[in-house]
């Protein structure tokens, strides 16, 4: 609110007379102003100390009041002027009086007793603002011969309340707004409305009446937004979406006005930037129309942002049907680190879905909505059959996988129509007439694909179905006619070994014809790859020893010990990423002599050595003996490493190529598998060879040191 102060009395005052130009009247109780007949002019000088008015204040009003006493004879007239130089109350005379300014106000001084007022608002404003130095006020006139004058009471008058007074009403100018937000380089999302706020500061407690906000581009200093002076008490401004450009750094400032229309200075510029749009990427499912082979999909995604240091703050995932119906939504969820989300919705087999992903960065800027369409197919592939056979002579267990697929094409000529084999083109032209072909079910899911031509393209004219030959019951059917030449499939799982009929039937009485081309009976889910797992019989831990094998593959396992029974299992992966495991196959291999294989290539680097002398096995631990004072025996510390070395002392080579092959294994510097008839199986390296010539060949000894080796893949 504005402040009013009354300065009374004046700090100094006096008057001068042109009739007595060297006389000082500083101690007089009255100030005579105007013209005195035959004695010239009287002019008053007054000084008020304005130090109590804060610098920068807005002067709303300043009224100089002088009191006229009783018993005076006429009206008078006087002017208010600014004194231009300093003066002293007790030395001022008409001869040394300072000059004065132009007139600020002029008033008639009535003969009536009381206060006589002059408007000093402009004069005081200039003095407080420092526009001019404060040398005081002049009241009087210097023209005319009317003889009209008035005596006004001075600061020396006995009645204190009638002494000169200056009443000033002023307003504190608001200081610069504070608490600007955004600030400190924070990022904003330019795609949404953003609120810019501040705190209006006024020493009088005056509320804000208006503001002006500027936004500047840092790169070139250009002002991109200037609100102009906006009449409003609200200490915020909403900047509409789209007013700022993503990826650009800005600065902003604001100034305010109070209710007295006094303006603050601008606040210091503070910076912010308009965030770039973050990028959301769905990495699983990896591409549109990918197959998901489980009844729940686990969405995997990535977040990136062009703005350095801008992290993810929230996500939203929606699951939609292919018809755009919302099946599940997370809503907007705060998270910095989540990158995988298992959607808690049970998917239906043989159905398309769409997953929608939106990510937000730390400025609440949203990414574009990313959509991934996928297909749920939880039908397993044909169960593989695994056969394991020990091959003693080759030192291996041979594994054979059978992924037999049904894939049969039945041409039109083999169809039955009107009770007879067609033998040529199969044409159906009468209502409810049909033709069929027989096939045998495998017990696994099958896809029955019908290839038919409808010469008239009549809607729902063709019914395709699967019937049971034993009772002619329809086990699967659908109406279709999607094009003149069309293909349509039915999914079907029948009883293994049972014969069924794939039937095409005309349903309308129209003149068009159905031409049956063929049907294809094939496994619904084809096997893409196989993995093989192995464990020792009687144990539970399976280890994968081969992966990504082709359908109907074979695999030879050389990493088996003599006399040990191993269990094997094949795992088939369908084209929809659904798996099917075989039943367990087992085999036991019995070895003669000693076998060495390259662990990475056991087939091509196989060595068989016979006539083995006793093998020595040395095992060592990593120990450190520490002698301590006061103890007769050392203290032991065990390390983490251990060693195991087999010493093959005398091996007689009878084959003509065995020496060269053994040396080749030694020179390969590869990890080898050593197996012998006692059931040893060790992965290791040959440290050195000792070769002795004999009349019947060579005798060789070597050390085989065990090393760490992971058999699993």
Summarize the structure.
This protein is mainly β and 713 residues long. 3% of the residues lie in helices and 52% in strands. The protein has 6 domains: 3-171, Jelly Rolls (Sandwich), CATH 2.60.120; 175-274, Sandwich (Immunoglobulin-like), CATH 2.60.40.10; 279-376, Immunoglobulins (Immunoglobulin-like, Sandwich); 382-404 and 533-590, Immunoglobulin-like, CATH 2.60.40; 407-523, Galactose-binding domain-like (Jelly Rolls), CATH 2.60.120.260; 594-706, Elongation Factor Tu (Ef-tu), domain 3 (Beta Barrel), CATH 2.40.30.
Please characterize this protein's 3D structure.
The chain is mainly beta and 713 residues long. It folds into 6 domains: 3-171, Sandwich (Jelly Rolls); 175-274, Immunoglobulin-like (Sandwich), CATH 2.60.40.10; 279-376, Immunoglobulin-like; 382-404 and 533-590, Immunoglobulins (Immunoglobulin-like), CATH 2.60.40.10; 407-523, Jelly Rolls, CATH 2.60.120.260; 594-706, Elongation Factor Tu (Ef-tu), domain 3 (Beta Barrel), CATH 2.40.30. Strands 2, 3, 4, 6, 7, 9 and 10 form a 7-stranded antiparallel β-sheet that branches. Strands 50-49-53-54-55-52-51 form a 7-stranded antiparallel β-sheet, covered by helices on one side. Strands 13, 15, 16, 17, 19 and 20 form a 6-stranded mixed β-sheet that branches. Strand 53 and strand 54 (681-694) form a beta hairpin. It is elongated and about 160 Å long. The two termini are 83 Å apart.
């Amino acid at each position: 609110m504005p402040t009013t102060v009354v300065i009374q009395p004046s700090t100094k005052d006096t008057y001068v007379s042109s009739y007595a130009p060297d006389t000082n009247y500083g101690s007089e109780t009255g100030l005579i102003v105007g013209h005195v007949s035959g004695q010239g002019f009287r002019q008053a000088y007054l000084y008020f100390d304005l130090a109590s008015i804060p610098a920068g204040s807005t002067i709303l009003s300043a009224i100089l009041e002088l009191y006229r006493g009783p018993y005076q004879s006429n009206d008078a007239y006087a002017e208010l002027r600014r004194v231009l130089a300093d003066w002293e109350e007790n030395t001022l005379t008409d001869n040394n009086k300072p000059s004065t300014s132009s007139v600020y106000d002029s008033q008639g001084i009535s003969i009536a007793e009381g206060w006589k007022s002059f408007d000093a608002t402009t004069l005081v404003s200039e003095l407080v603002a420092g526009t001019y130095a404060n040398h005081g006020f002049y009241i009087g006139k210097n023209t005319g011969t009317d003889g009209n004058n008035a005596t006004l009471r001075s600061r020396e008058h006995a009645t204190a309340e009638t002494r000169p007074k200056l009443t000033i009403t002023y307003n504190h100018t608001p200081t610069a707004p504070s608490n600007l937000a955004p600030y400190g380089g924070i990022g904003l999302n330019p795609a949404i409305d953003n609120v810019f706020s501040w705190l209006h500061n006024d020493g009088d407690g005056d509320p804000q009446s208006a503001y002006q906000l500027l936004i500047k581009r840092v790169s070139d200093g250009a002002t991109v937004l200037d609100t102009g002076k906006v009449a409003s008490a609200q200490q915020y401004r909403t900047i509409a979406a789209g007013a700022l450009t993503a990826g650009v750094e800005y600065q902003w400032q604001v100034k305010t006005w109070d209710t007295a229309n006094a303006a603050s200075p601008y606040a210091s510029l503070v910076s912010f930037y308009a965030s770039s749009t973050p990028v959301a990427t769905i990495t699983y499912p990896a591409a549109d129309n990918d197959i998901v082979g489980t009844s729940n999909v686990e969405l995997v995604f990535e977040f990136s942002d062009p703005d350095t240091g801008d992290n993810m703050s929230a996500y939203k995932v929606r699951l939609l049907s292919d018809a755009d119906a919302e099946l599940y939504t997370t809503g907007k969820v705060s998270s910095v680190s989540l990158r995988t989300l298992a959607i808690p919705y049970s998917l239906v087999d043989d159905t398309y879905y769409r997953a929608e992903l939106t990510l937000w960065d730390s400025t609440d800027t949203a990414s574009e909505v990313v959509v991934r369409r996928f297909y749920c197919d939880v039908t397993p592939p044909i169960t593989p059959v695994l056969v394991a056979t020990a091959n003693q002579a080759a030192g291996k267990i041979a594994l054979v996988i059978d992924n037999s697929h049904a894939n049969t094409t039945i041409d039109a000529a083999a169809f039955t129509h009107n009770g007879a084999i067609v033998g040529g083109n199969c044409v159906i032209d009468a209502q409810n007439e049909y033709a069929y072909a027989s096939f045998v079910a495998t017990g696994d899911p099958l896809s029955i694909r019908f290839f038919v031509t409808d010469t008239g393209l009549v809607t729902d004219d063709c019914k395709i179905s699967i019937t049971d030959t034993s009772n002619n019951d329809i086990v699967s059917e659908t109406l279709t006619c999607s094009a003149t030449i069309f293909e349509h499939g039915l999914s079907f799982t029948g009883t293994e070994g049972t014969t069924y009929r794939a039937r095409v039937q005309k349903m309308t009485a129209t003149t068009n014809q159905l031409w049956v081309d063929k049907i294809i009976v094939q496994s619904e889910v084809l096997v893409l790859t196989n993995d093989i797992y192995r464990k020792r019989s009687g144990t539970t831990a399976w280890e994968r020893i081969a992966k990504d094998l082709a359908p109907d593959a074979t695999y030879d396992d050389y990493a088996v010990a003599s006399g040990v029974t191993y269990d094997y299992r094949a795992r088939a992966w369908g084209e929809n990423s659904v798996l099917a495991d075989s039943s367990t196959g087992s085999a036991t291999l019995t070895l003669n002599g000693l076998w060495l294989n390259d662990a990475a290539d056991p087939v091509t680097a196989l060595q068989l050595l016979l006539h083995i002398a006793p093998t020595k096995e040395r095992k060592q631990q990593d120990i450190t003996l520490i002698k301590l004072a006061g103890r007769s025996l050392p203290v032991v510390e065990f390390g983490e490493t251990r060693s195991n070395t087999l010493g093959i002392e005398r091996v007689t080579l009878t084959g003509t190529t065995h020496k060269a092959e053994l040396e080749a294994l030694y020179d390969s510097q590869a990890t080898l598998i050593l197996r012998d008839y006692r059931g040893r199986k060790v992965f290791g390296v040959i440290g050195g060879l000792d070769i002795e010539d004999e009349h019947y060949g060579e005798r060789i000894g070597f050390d085989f040191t065990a090393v760490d080796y992971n058999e699993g893949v």
